[in-house]
Design a protein that fits this description.
By secondary structure, this protein is α+β, with helices and mostly antiparallel strands. The chain has helices at about 10-15, 20-25, 135, and strands spanning about 45-50, 55-60, 60-65, 70, 80-85, 95-100, 105-110, 120-125, 130. It has three helices and nine strands; from the N terminus they run H-H-E-E-E-E-E-E-E-E-E-H. The protein is globular, with a radius of gyration of 14 Å. It comes from Clostridium gelidum.
Length: about 150
């Protein structure tokens, strides 16, 4: 799986990402709550790392947490993310980064729904690209189709 997802150079990222996508993924910025692409978006499909295309989250794992950013109960697999202690802004949180691209995605908290494990992955829309269910096979993500709630 990892062979098709490659970490891109700073130059490539600056050329291919919007300013907010670059600031979020490479400078650890946070986009505005409630005013982002996927906060209130609930189509069936897969969310991938905007910098590499690496699969990260399924729409089946998405829920409305009311926090203003897309929230997921878990990643596709723990191998696709890295967690890191974040002591910025006067608080201690757990940062979530993509494994291959090392892109800043957001943070994980222990206040998610108990029935799905109790975690809330609070993720910036700017760090994600959504692949709709009907495009997953065509774009090489067919192995994840069975995991969608259809």
């Amino acid at each position: 799986m990892d062979k098709k997802y490659v970490k891109k150079s700073v130059e490539e990222l600056k050329e291919n990402l919007t300013e907010i996508q670059y600031r979020v993924t490479k400078e650890n910025a946070t986009e505005a709550p409630f005013n982002n692409e996927y906060n209130s978006f609930y189509e069936k499909g897969i969310y991938v790392d905007i910098t590499t295309g690496e699969p990260l989250f399924m729409s089946s794992f998405k829920f409305d947490s009311g926090c203003g950013w897309p929230a997921f109960s878990k990643p596709i697999t723990r191998k696709v993310i890295k967690e890191k202690k974040d002591e910025n802004h006067g608080m201690v949180r757990t940062e979530v980064r993509s494994n291959i691209g090392d892109a800043h995605l957001g943070h994980v908290f222990n206040d998610g729904p108990e029935e799905t494990g109790g975690l809330r992955y609070c993720i910036n829309s700017a760090a994600l690209k959504f692949i709709p269910m009907d495009k997953m096979k065509e774009l090489g993500y067919e192995e994840y189709l069975d995991e969608l709630d259809i």
